[in-house]
Write a structure and sequence with these properties.
Layout: E1 2-7, E2 18-22, H1 33-36, E3 40-41, H2 49-55, H3 62-75, H4 77-92, E4 94-99, H5 108-116
Parallel strand pairs: 1-4, 2-3, 2-4
Helix pairs in contact: 3-4
Pfam families: DUF488-N3i (PF22752)
Protein name: DUF488 domain-containing protein
Organism: Bacillus seohaeanensis
Length: 117
Amino acid sequence: MNVQIKRIYHSTNREHNEKRILVDRVWPRGISKEDANLDEWLRDVAPSPELRKWFHHDPEKFELFKEEYKKELDNEEQKAHALQKLKDYAKQGNLVLLYGAKDEEHNHARVIKELLT
């Protein structure tokens, strides 16, 4: 099982035998659906708008954000279902989680990867 996270702006080319999933709630600006080269867009796995706005990619809030986001993934049926779908994809082969955030260290895709590996 190989799970990678990549910023969608840096990665629009598909590598051999990988499943590319966008895990953001909002479509990334400036990327066409064709250029994104996705297999699926799983909006439901993204953090709630309230949590995302509170976090605002502040590195000092990241640990608390991770805790709250994991609670959302555990307690909200749609999020739990989407996370299970990602787990199933990860078992099948190479999985690439795509996100749009500028901060490559403090983002929800990292949390998802942590839960999948």
